[in-house]
Amino acid sequence: MGEDMAERTPSASRGPQESRQPSEDLVPAWAELVATARRTVADGLVVGTSGNVSVRVGDTVLVTPTGVAYDRLAPHDVVGVDLDGRQVLGELKPTSELPMHLAVYRGTDAAAVVHTHAVHATAVSTIVDELPLIHYMAAALGGPVRVAGYALYGSDELAGNVLSALRDRSACLLQNHGTVAYGSTLDQAYDRTAQLEWMCRVWLAASSVPGHTPRLLSRRQLRAVAERLRGYGQRS
What we know:
The chain is an alpha+beta fold and about 240 residues long. The protein is about 30% helix and about 15% strand. The chain is built from six helices and eight strands.
């Protein structure tokens, strides 16, 4: 959800007087989270304070706060909650999409989540129930990317819809809303977000050519790519 709109305080949150300062292991994680959030703005994946980013460190989930421009976030602005949504760090209120982030952490092996309002992905979410197989990088996201059904931002219903769309996937579209991607690191979650937006842009561009229908990949072709990707990249 766009964080520039009025938002509620999670009912389970603690007051500022009960918050504590982050331990040393959380300081670099917060810095990386802020850098990732700023990157979503710089790369045009969000406008203003829309979208949100989180990272899990043990049983603590660091999240972007609601209604604060990312370029204004400082080390002392850290916001953290436990897996039940109780605020354990900071004085700023967590993002209104906290239920969605926590649902992803509870239901997957995610260590980081990125949510954006990327233009092309949002446009595609209004047209189809699943992103057509326009490019083989869909395999890197677990397969054809589904569209989670529309629900009110910040709601448990939206969180449930997202979790269903993410079944055996690492990213999904949110109908009339945006994207969600997760990964084992913030870099991986961000890269999957960017790949999804790029694929949506390609499909929209190909679909807009009069008199032509885009050629799509088959599920068999996608499975072959998935097998090839298992050996992709450097190995330490």
